[in-house]
Amino acid sequence: MTPHWYDLLDVDPDASTDEIRAAWKAAIADLDPGDRRFRAFSEAAAVLLDPVRRAEYDAALAEAAAEPEPEPEAEPEPASDAEPERDADEQVLPSGRAGIPLAVVIVTAVATVLMVAVTVVAWLGSDSAPDSISTGPSRVDESETRAAQAAAETAIVPVISYDYRTLEADAAAATSYMTDEFGAKYEQTFPVVTENAPNTKTVITVEVVASGIVRTGDDRVDVLLFVNRPTTNKQDTEPVVYRDQVTAQMLLVDGEWLVDNLITTPAAQ
Predict the structure, then answer these.
(1) 204 lies in which domain range?
(2) Per-residue pLDDT, 34
């Protein structure tokens, strides 16, 4: 079974909020914010310190634990010498077995090629990379959806970048792009950066490679952003580029699109 967030932070499933916070701080104490482990520990803490998300996560764990073991596969029947009848669009594989319908093969192949093409273009960072990737239906006016996408592309730079020499100004700039609720959560976690960054001399910059709309709702738009994070510190004076995919949940507040939540997933390096 894949280790869960409790295992990662080495706490019991009934651990208190204070125990989880202490375990998280201990886990990241000697890690650079650009380290994958730092992000994994922080993601675990973000889930387990949020009562709603923790309850959902616990329910998912319980459901997974309750799933029955899969039945063993039955022994295959001996092959018959007679050729079975096949539909006209079925193909025969080289092994002599019937393949899936040709139409399904073609659709699957085209979908695979498109996904590979999007991934390659997004992460090459070349001049041919698209300005945006459009996905999913829109429930918000198109002009507002595009405004939310543009706001996410602008906000993501100050929200996840910082310079150890200008941390106070960086934090102020970041929160100006957030809702009050998300800004309050940010201000609770940013002191960890304030404590560690001057010692590691970390500087994180952000480059938006591509973005796309993944979900919309009433006054809410989720924007998927592919970003590069060139990072330097006292050990790596030349930038090390980390690549992430970030879902920015944008909320319309008094006519302005603000970041209401971020979900970050490291991309393949």
Answers:
(1) 142-266
(2) 61
